[in-house]
Amino acid sequence: MWLANDGNYREMRYFTPWAKHRQTEDHYLPRMVQQVTGQVKVPFGDAVVSTADTCIGIELCEELFTPASPHILMGLDGVEIFTNSSGSHHELRKLNTRIDLIREATQKLGGVYLYANQQGCDGDRLYYDGCALIALNGKVIAQGSQFSLNDVEVVTATIDIEDVRSHRAVKSRSMQAAGAERYQRIEVPFALSDDRFGRAPTRFQDARFHKPEEEIALGPACWLWDYLRRSRTQGFFLPLSGGIDSCATATIVHSMCHLVSEAASRGEQDIIGDARRIAGEPEDSTYIPSDPKEFCSRVFHTCYMGTSNSSADTRGRAKELAQAIGSYHVDLNMDTVVSAVQTLFSTVTGLRPRFKVHGGSSAENLALQNIQARLRMVLAYMFAQLLPWVRGRAGGLLVLGSANVDESLRGYLTKYDCSSADINPIGGISKTDLKKFIAYAQTQFELPILEKFLTATPTAELEPITETYVQADEADMGMTYDELSIFGRLRKVEKCGPYSMFSKLVNEWGSMLSPLQIASKVKLFFYEYARNRHKMTTLTPSYHAESYSPDDNR
Fold first, then answer.
1. Count of CB atoms situated within 10 Å of the CB of 448
2. Nearest Cα to Cα of residue 521 among 477, 489, 552, 551
3. Which of 15, 54, 61, 257 could bond 292 through an S-S bridge, CB–CB 3.0 to 4.6 Å?
4. What pLDDT, on the 0 to 100 scale, is given for residue 300?
């Protein structure tokens, strides 16, 4: 038995893998089970189940992904049906790998593969994306949905077991099978087939895959819905800055509202019941969330928190987006709060800090930026607690964060600012993928306002704007978002340190940059990554969508 014990998983914290290959032991059942079943003991261990008409073997989750998967030896010993009860989480572009492995498991070996996967949020960062699947001799014959608001989904198919036997009638396979070690067979007194005629086998079908932009629209949306209904809160609150990150978070909530509306139109009572409770409807209500924009107005609250450093462009974009998706929107200026904190500091110290453009030092400049950002977090939680009361409803709201994976990895965020929230649907998604998602959502959800977000220069708007200076994220970071994505993937997925990363990039970027320029960028990345590790320990729980997530602190 092989357990998942890296990446997001630490299964060996709780379990010890069975190490006795092809062996079983007698396990005595609890007395209450004995009384119900009349059975005293059961075999426990590494064996296969033999019915009157076929043989069934079991793989566990991670074993599908291992080099020497158990289905290989089980198949050579005559097992025809393989089952896998999996807990495989969603990552962008991961489904292709999973389905390729399932196909490969039965393409050379022959057989039927029954793959069941958990679906829904685990109460933490992971979303399990379902997609139950049945494959026969390397071809898909049934596939469930990858993203759904339903708790349970059943996928069925009719197969002819003789197709497996004819597929295995190959001399080289038979010779290997003749020398295969034998598994203990647990015989059961029933058959999976019957003598009825007239049922045609299920036809083969092409496997269905979502584009990464669609995955971003659907996966985090389902994750948010699970969190919302579990938390028993009345909706979400998002500081909407007019930038692309908070725009992406808002659009994902809008996508969630679409999924709820579509499920309601199909008459799915569990989802309708949850929607009524979240929207504050009484128990005898007949409300149906048929319009996603109307439902959004009930459960989604946005707020533009402007200062004297904010531009009319970001304020206008935030307001237009809120109107387009239907959120309950608040527009405020917080200069009085910022000024009160600055006055307090000056009263205590006798000094008044200045921005760099006004002659202040780097320390003054950074402190003045951070106090704006951190006050936004304080105001966000206040409004999240009280806006339902303002609207005549009980309860509170979950605060959403909107820091992307690249900024977290680089440490380009203020600790305990609006990146600190209850949950963050885009915290594991790169800026590059978010831009593609926004372009997709512009058409998919008919939101022309999103074009303005795509063409805007990313900026924190924490420093005064002058004729010669406008704050820009990439200039502040010293690297582009595309470069950050590459650094992140090389560091985590390719397991590169500074030297090996430099060696790879010299070959990939050598035609554009000199070795000295590449070395400078790699050094800067690792310098900023190392010195900002303290920020990673306070990251908001984020939807896990990339294998190079910065959440190494777990």
1. 10
2. 477
3. 257
4. 98
